[in-house]
């Protein structure tokens, strides 16, 4: 009998019951007040009069009126650069212990985002809350005795003068609680290996020795790792070596485009739980099985604001117009697209994280990521968010019975006008013309602006089929394999030309 697992499951059930009902709106008000109080004597807090904001009748309104929006470039150029020159108390008391390196999906040059000790604690506590939420899922007791394989960035962080640097998944993994280390795979020694291929090779070697109950990581890299384990051990599916695998925690990107190819590696269905961990903080996680939406972490070091998504509010460089209105959690509506703005215990203030979200349940503060502000395809008025593109791709997979784990596209101008030009990563024998027709029909039905654009300047859809490995090699050349690296779903014409040149060289 799994005694330890029963005890852990019982503790989770009891703790979750004791936690009681939550009030996200009240929690957010407390978080904002706490952030302003802690940072009131910093350079940033004095510049924007945090003490005056705290004394106002409406703290949220005063905060939004007195503090401008920032993206990485603007806050780094105005404030964070001082941290690298040895200054203290810049946007948060003291100096950050870590900097999270992030090129994300938008470029080669890494951003260096401060990660304070308070943020490490916040991420850890959000992780504990997610574990407690497992009481809502019907997992057997012995699941809580199995290993959790976390495939993130290397935990061998870069030492600088007074801090460490690395990707947020590596920083988080290097700070896991002591009680969790017995469950954590691949273990500290393998996790420190910087080269992704070498790390996967070690995982493949150790795979028969582990009893894995859960997986965590970016879908594309998890899939590649699973394929290597299956291939090297001559398996039909991953459950032949890890029969107790019950759950996969996805993070950072929508799971939908990977669902079919991921499930093909399984011997039976497993539970997929979405998680929203960004370089700037642990933002949300799925906490109940009735929905695949994620609950915002509203009581833990992050204050959220929401700008109604309107292309007129987004400037050419992807930043926000300072006149764009912001809403609090008390003011949002279900089903509307919003640009997500955060202020955190790491000293990010009214910060454009780059994602768009929509609420599926306002009372529970549950959201879905709908896309990226820079990946919103609005050439010739088509107004397509990434979630609409993902939905169209899933419809294509189902109709043609194929797997397409990766894709990218661009509104590219040809001699006769603009075409949405898709590159699909698939091993299947796909007719590009049939795929183009299916995608076009799906998007016409799902988006009225796209349908209007197709009757005017948008001439049609073109599809090219390449092997999925081309996408992974592109990421390897432009950024780095594994970790937090994600594929650009939508490219501008200049970047898309680089992509097409790269594809030509691979053929």
From TrEMBL:
High-level lineage: Bacteria, Pseudomonadati, Bacteroidota, Flavobacteriia, Flavobacteriales
Q: Where is the GH3 C-terminal domain?
A: 388-494
Q: What is this protein called?
A: GH3 auxin-responsive promoter family protein
Residues in GH3 middle domain copies: 297-362
Extract the PANTHER family matched here.
GH3 DOMAIN-CONTAINING PROTEIN
**Where on the tree of life does the source sit, at the highest rank?**
Bacteria
Pfam families in UniProt: GH3 (PF03321), GH3_C (PF23572), GH3_M (PF23571)
């Amino acid at each position: 009998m799994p005694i330890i697992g029963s005890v852990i499951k019982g503790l989770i059930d009891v703790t979750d019951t004791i936690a009681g009902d939550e009030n996200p709106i009240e929690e957010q008000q407390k978080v904002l007040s706490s952030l302003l109080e802690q940072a009131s004597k910093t350079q940033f807090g004095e510049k924007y009069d945090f003490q005056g904001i705290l004394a106002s009748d409406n703290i949220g309104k005063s905060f939004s009126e007195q503090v401008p929006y920032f993206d990485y470039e603007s806050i780094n150029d105005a404030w964070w650069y001082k941290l690298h020159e040895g200054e203290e108390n810049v946007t948060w008391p003291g100096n950050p212990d870590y900097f999270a390196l992030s090129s994300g999906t938008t470029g080669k040059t890494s951003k260096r985002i401060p990660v304070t000790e308070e943020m490490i604690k916040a991420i850890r506590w959000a992780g504990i809350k997610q574990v407690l939420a497992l009481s809502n899922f019907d997992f057997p007791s012995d699941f809580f005795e199995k290993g959790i394989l976390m495939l993130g960035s290397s935990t061998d962080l870069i030492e600088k003068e007074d801090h460490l640097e690395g990707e947020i998944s590596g920083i988080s993994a290097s700070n896991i609680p002591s009680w969790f280390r017995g469950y954590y795979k691949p273990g500290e020694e393998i996790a420190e290996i910087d080269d992704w291929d070498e790390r996967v090779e070690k995982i493949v070697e150790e795979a028969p020795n582990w009893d894995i109950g859960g997986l965590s990581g970016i879908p594309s890299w998890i899939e590649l790792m699973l394929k290597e384990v299956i291939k090297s051990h001559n398996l039909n599916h991953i459950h032949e070596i890890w029969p107790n695998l019950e759950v996969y925690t996805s993070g950072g990107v929508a799971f939908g485009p990977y669902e079919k190819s991921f499930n093909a590696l399984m011997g039976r269905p497993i539970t997929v739980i979405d998680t929203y961990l960004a370089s700037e903080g642990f933002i949300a996680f799925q906490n109940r099985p009735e929905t695949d939406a994620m609950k915002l972490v509203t009581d833990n070091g992050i204050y959220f604001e929401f700008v109604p998504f309107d292309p007129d509010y987004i400037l050419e460089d992807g930043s926000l117009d300072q006149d764009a209105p912001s809403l609090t959690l008390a003011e949002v509506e279900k089903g509307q697209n919003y640009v997500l703005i955060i202020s955190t215990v790491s000293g990010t203030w009214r910060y454009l994280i780059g994602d768009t979200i929509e609420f599926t349940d306002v009372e529970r503060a549950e959201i879905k990521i709908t896309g990226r502000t820079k990946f919103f395809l609005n050439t010739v008025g088509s107004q397509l968010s990434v979630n609409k593109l993902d939905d169209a791709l899933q419809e294509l997979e189902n109709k043609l019975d194929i797997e397409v784990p990766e894709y990218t596209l661009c509104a590219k101008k040809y001699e006769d006008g603009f075409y949405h030009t898709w590159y699909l990563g698939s091993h299947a024998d796909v007719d590009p013309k049939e795929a183009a027709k299916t995608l076009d029909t799906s998007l016409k039905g799902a988006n009225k602006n796209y349908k209007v654009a197709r009757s005017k300047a948008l001439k049609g859809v073109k599809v090219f089929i390449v092997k999925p490995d081309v996408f992974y090699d592109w990421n390897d050349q432009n950024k780095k394999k594994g970790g937090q690296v994600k594929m650009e779903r939508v490219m501008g014409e200049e970047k898309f030309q680089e992509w097409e040149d790269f594809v030509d060289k691979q053929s």
